[in-house]
């Protein structure tokens, strides 16, 4: 009887691995679609969360938190697309305008669709709608994006400069708030008015400006995400970005100014405002 029990135990031990191995090695049929859906959701949530504030660039902890969740693949895509847009946006301004309208519609639709439980459907519908409207209304779309680019620059420069000025004024140990950083909407309003009005007068300049600003923002977010993805550099990069609220705005807007100048030179007289860029 003992011999029989030992045989049963031996057979059970021998058969145990064969019954559990397939479950660990054979992936489920829905693994790849689920992974793609997670990556897509992560992309939307990261970008929408990063720019949920008007002064997003002047909030380094907020930016770092979302950039670390972006991923290296999306970071590389950001760098390539951003550099092309920053230095050559005037050459394909129609495509850039329609693409920005599509992305803005998709992110706005994703945020709104999340409230009603259908983020991807609403994002797709609203994105296609805005992209379609941008094509026949190209001049007005460029003017709107030029004004929004000015508002973006104004809000973040106001917030970054306000923090820097207040920090300098408080060096003696007494906290002073000379420029209210939370009133960044004043800088946004000023940038919107100036750039929005210039867009109707200098069409080419508006094209160059919004492609340079948007391209520089996208490219720099990609570069920072790549740097933060490497463990040996992560803490050093984070410390450098959080040293001042003015660091990230400078990293974005200085390349944007360089891109604007180079695009102006290469396009041959954008500042003069003659006509529209070549199709």
TrEMBL record:
Protein name listed in UniProt: DUF4203 domain-containing protein
Presence of keyword Membrane: yes
Keywords: Membrane, Transmembrane, Transmembrane helix
Upper taxonomic lineage: Bacteria, Pseudomonadati, Planctomycetota, Phycisphaerae, Phycisphaerales
Presence of the UniProt keyword Nucleotidyltransferase in the record: no
Segments crossing the lipid bilayer: 67-85, 92-112, 118-137, 144-164, 184-203, 210-230, 242-262
